[in-house]
Amino acid sequence: MISAILFVSLIVLLFSSVPVAIAIGSSSLLVAWVSDIPLMVIAQRIFTTNDSFPLMAIPFFMVAGAVMTKGGVSQRLVNFASALVGALTGGLAMVVLVGCAFFAAISGSSAATVAAIGAIMIPTMEKRGYARHFSAGVTASGGALGMIIPPSIVMIIYGVAAEVSIVSLFLGGFIPGIFMMAAMMAVVYYYSKKEGYAGTEKFSGRAVWVTFKESFWGLLMPVIILGGIYGGIFTPTEAAAVGAAYGFIISLFVYKDMEFSQIPDVLLGAVKATAIVMFIMNSAGLFGWILVNHQIPQTIATALTSLTTNPNTLLLMLVGVMLIVGTFMNAAPAMVILAPILVPVVVAVGIDPIYFGVLMTIALTIGVVTPPVGVDLFVSSSIANIPIEKVARAAFPFIVAMIICVVLMIYFPQIIMFLPKLVQGI
After folding, report:
1. In the chain, what are the domain boundaries?
2. Residue 86 pLDDT
3. 3-state secondary structure string, the chain?
4. For 362-409, how does the pLDDT look when each residue is reduced to its tens digit (9 = 90+)?
């Protein structure tokens, strides 16, 4: 009865276009009222959600991404990517994907990645003869790498919700991110061959070296962040703070593309983005507590494992559910809702929660490129100034490629677990 009230009210509110955080909080409050849970307990549970040191990484990564965008780092990363892959068939589209991968290692956000790379590359591709809808589609798809290649804000949320190592999650995201980038590059090559999109220029080792030197300080940022984390020098939260400080230093004093007068706007934007995430997290904290208090995850785990105990079959079922959820809910709120429910299910059949966390992040991330609420589609559509339907159609082959990658990761879990196991074995 309680689970029916909780989920039915949540679904009704979501499909009534109520903001996600309010929908989660309202359905939780309804159950709390029916269950006669004191208001003081509700307030304590909401407040307790914020009492998490790893969550402090989110605002710092938000600041770091915003600073690097304002500081001209994205343009330099694009120049370096162009020198590396611009000579290939469909060179500029390849540059978008490689540039998104580079920027993903800085921002941890798909929307920020699309905004930073798309603002530069979509107009450039159109001038070089690429169809505008294709340019927007490949940019929106490449932005998904922002939540897969570490550092990833969604992985931080999963790590907090599932109480697992964020460092291990970051390690698990590396190879899948590169794997998915390669799959999308294959789609670009096929399409560009058919449409006659040639490379921009001949490969030049000198150009690679020159653009590498120009982008060196930007490329050094993920090395500092991730190297410091994996080297045990600082935690992910401390790494995020170091990254934000480093971003300010190189943007203001090295590249000098950012003015001191822009700092308030950068900080205000990061505060707004963080407030949205934390509002969702607060509501989800109460939601998760009610789930556990009424043993709903255990009930769901029993129901699903009664259908199958085969790990691969179960993962295929759950990935299918997450792909559907991703079409109408962004990855962050979907993660905070689903992680407390699904982690006990997969643990019950012997699936590693680290492996599942990366797989879950990828499956939900595909939703940023799928209508009706794919945030990357909207960002890319606004940059290209074309209807979102055209962007969605252009992104469809890339979505198929990403889904194929997810299925391969189910049957070949070492794609995800190779680095975490390698590091743990050292």
Report:
1. 38-425
2. 81
3. CHHHHHHHHHHHHHHCCCCHHHHHHHHHHHHHHHCCCCHHHHHHHHHHHHCCHHHHHHHHHHHHHHHHHHCCHHHHHHHHHHHHHCCCCCHHHHHHHHHHHHHHHHHCCHHHHHHHHHHHHHHHHHHCCCCHHHHHHHHHHHHHHHHCCCCCHHHHHHHHHHCCCHHHHHHHHHHHHHHHHHHHHHHHHHHHHHHCCCCCCCCCHHHHHHHHHHHHHHHHHHHHHHHHHHCCCCCHHHHHHHHHHHHHHHHHHHCCCCCHHHHHHHHHHHHHHHHHHHHHHHHHHHHHHHHHHCCHHHHHHHHHHHHCCCHHHHHHHHHHHHHHHHCCCCHHHHHHHHHHHHHHHHHHCCCCHHHHHHHHHHHHHHHHHCCCCCHHHHHHHHHHCCCHHHHHHHHHHHHHHHHHHHHHHHHCCHHHHHHHHHHHHC
4. 999 998 888 766 778 888 888 888 888 888 899 999 999 999 999 999
